[in-house]
TrEMBL record:
Top-level taxon: Bacteria
PANTHER family named among the record's database cross-references: PYRUVATE DEHYDROGENASE E1 COMPONENT, TRANSKETOLASE-LIKE PYRIMIDINE-BINDING DOMAIN-CONTAINING PROTEIN
Domain Transketolase-like pyrimidine-binding: 2-168
InterPro entries linked to this entry: PDH/Transketolase, THDP-binding, Transketo_C/PFOR_II, Transketolase-like_Pyr-bd
Listed GO MF terms: magnesium ion binding
Protein name as annotated: 33.6 kDa protein in fasciation locus
Gene name as annotated: fas3
């Protein structure tokens, strides 16, 4: 199976040929995979080099001319480093584009903290009007990439990862999907966390919702699931900073008593490189860690 990033390269190359409005801006990262696309569309595929602020600035300029720019690099260089340009060159100018990241929270541990971005979605939450997709499988990544490319002039972030669920699910770029039903509580699994959540909650009477589009937050589906489960105990398992989505979840349930547990990447930096699975376990995001924390939260409801 190809990775999400490999699928991004092949799908975007095809979309550039299909839609003359699309453009691609790179900052060296991933440029080799688009060599053929650059030869075919030299006016719409631009590599600005290792200049991430310029990456966003060029994308914003393209959007002002009517193009739909796709901007790609590691998440830490796409959201964190050029944050001012996201705020001004896109948001303040009233134009949109598609950010497509790689690296996620710690996909490349040996790259060190410079290449990790567990706070990317939380940072975008400080800006207005962003749609955020977090696919959990390469097939879902393709669907959401095409959805983002066709989304008019909207501002869209597609967060790719080396983590992947074993099988794809049907996604529509808007709603959470109900994967399992129960009456003991509701667990929202975001993107590549679904398989771990399903393993962690096996045999427990819990509703599991699958979220691949987290902004806008699907309040209606969460409320319906809580009503069906007869409880407002909600756990959110995200592959980025813990608690990132507890605020919109609390707003969805603000008219009723509820309890929320936000699980995700901790704030403490893990300074040993290790491997991806070791980082997951260290943050309690492996099936064993998730089961302990979820059951502890639910059994402590009294």
């Amino acid at each position: 199976m190809d990775t999400m990033r490999e699928r991004f390269t092949s799908v975007t190359s095809r979309m550039l040929a299909e839609d003359p409005r699309l453009a691609l801006v790179l900052a060296d990262i991933g440029a080799a995979g688009f060599a053929e696309a650059e030869q075919r569309h030299p006016d719409r595929v631009v590599n600005v080099g290792i200049r991430e602020q310029l990456l966003i600035g060029v994308g914003g300029g393209m959007a002002l001319t009517g193009l739909r720019p796709i901007m790609h690099t590691f998440a830490s260089f796409l959201v964190e480093r050029p944050f001012e340009q996201l705020k001004l060159d896109l948001g303040h100018q009233g134009v949109g584009g598609v950010l497509v990241s790689a690296g996620a929270s710690y996909d490349w541990p040996s790259g060190g903290f410079t290449h990790m971005a567990p706070g990317d979605v939380a940072l975008l939450d400080t800006l207005d009007g962003w749609t955020v997709h977090v696919p959990g499988h390469p097939d879902e990544a393709e669907t959401l990439l095409r959805h983002a490319a066709a989304a008019g002039d909207d501002k869209v972030y597609v967060r790719l990862s080396m983590q992947s669920n074993a099988a794809p699910r049907s996604v529509d770029g808007a709603r959470f999907r109900t994967v399992r039903e129960g009456r003991g509580g509701v667990v929202i699994a975001v993107g590549p966390m679904l398989d771990s959540v399903l393993a962690a909650t096996e045999g427990l009477p819990l509703t599991v919702l699958y979220a691949t589009t987290v902004r806008p937050f699907d309040a209606a589906t969460l409320r319906a699931a809580a009503d069906a489960a007869g409880t407002s105990d909600v756990v959110i398992v995200e592959p980025y900073l813990a608690g990132t989505s507890t605020r919109p979840a609390a707003e969805a349930l603000e008219d009723r008593p509820h309890r929320l547990l936000g699980l995700g990447v901790g704030r403490q930096e893990l300074r040993r490189y290790g491997q991806l699975d070791e980082h997951l376990a260290a943050h309690g995001l492996d099936p064993r860690g998730l089961r302990e924390r979820i059951t502890g939260f639910l059994t402590g409801r009294a």
